[in-house]
Amino acid sequence: MLRAAEAPPLAPDELRLHWCPDPGSADPPEPRRQRVDRLLRTVLAAHVGLPPHALAFGREEKGRPFLRHEGAPDFNLSDTRGGTLVALCRQGRVGVDLERIDRIPPVGRLSRRWFSAQEADQLDAMDAESARLAFLRLWTAKEASCKATGTGIFGYTPRWRFDARADTPRLLEPPSDAGDAARWQFFRLSPSREHTAVLALRDAITPRLTAYLLAG
Ligand SMILES: CC(C)(COP(=O)(O)OP(=O)(O)OC[C@H]1O[C@@H](n2cnc3c(N)ncnc32)[C@H](O)[C@@H]1OP(=O)(O)O)[C@@H](O)C(=O)NCCC(=O)NCCS
């Protein structure tokens, strides 16, 4: 991974990632809201040609943030214990979800609530560890997709149907208001040994994926 300070301008065909590890050792601890705001401004400022403090953000109806500057890239972020991932691109819309791979969710209960009946049945038929991994695969794929469209997850996760066995998300059927499956591309990433992530991208030609490390 290259360092963020060495990052060139964002190319039209690029899907760029910034991985911002959080050792959690700040003393006093930096509030989440403050850390995310600081990282986002650091990552995005160069692409708008303004200093970080001068960036103006808006929110779509369900909370998806965007930059209020002409020609600004699309972006999305996800954070969890241990780090933050920011994705940006100039074509299409991107969504990102980052999770810890050691997460042990109550798979049976959550998959009935958040997945389609067929996906929940598939997970039920697996042994516990396979079901846990399949749950994480599906969850990251669905949440990244919902974040690309901006709908939020409520009512939408069961409508995004993926192959529970595929590590790189394989979309079987999107919700009817998300556009044809052919408009979507997905990428699976491991930004650290403890994390897994999905990037969902709509309406872009095959992008060139680049990754940068942002310390702090
Ligand atoms: C978007 C959502 C999936 C985020 O889930 P999460 O696991 O808490 O968080 P993540 O770390 O992956 O992502 C959080 C970031 O995603 C972005 N985000 C927020 N809402 C978003 C949306 N609707 N679509 C895409 N991205 C969104 C923000 O940058 C947010 O960071 P912030 O909280 O500092 O603003 C979830 O909160 C959701 O479904 N929200 C919709 C809420 C809603 O329907 N509101 C309607 C009005 S009540």
Q: State the order of secondary-structure elements, H for helix, E for strand.
A: EEHEEEEEHHHEEEEE
Q: What would you give as the CATH superfamily?
A: 4'-phosphopantetheinyl transferase domain
What kind of sheet is the major sheet? Answer: 5 strands, mixed
Uncertain residue ranges: none
Q: In CATH terms, what is the fold-level topology?
A: Ribosomal Protein L22, Chain A
CATH top level assignment: Alpha Beta
User: How many H/I helical runs?
Assistant: 4
Strand content: 25-35%
The amount of helix comes to 25-40%
Radius of gyration: 17 Å
Give the CATH architecture: Alpha-Beta Complex
The hetero compounds bound to this protein are:
coenzyme A
Integer count of domains = 1
Mean pLDDT: 95
Main sheet strand line-up = 1-12-2-6-5
Taking the alpha carbons of the first and last residues, their distance comes to 15 Å
Task: Give the tally of β-strands.
Answer: 12
Helix/strand/pairing category: alpha+beta
Q: What's the shape?
A: globular
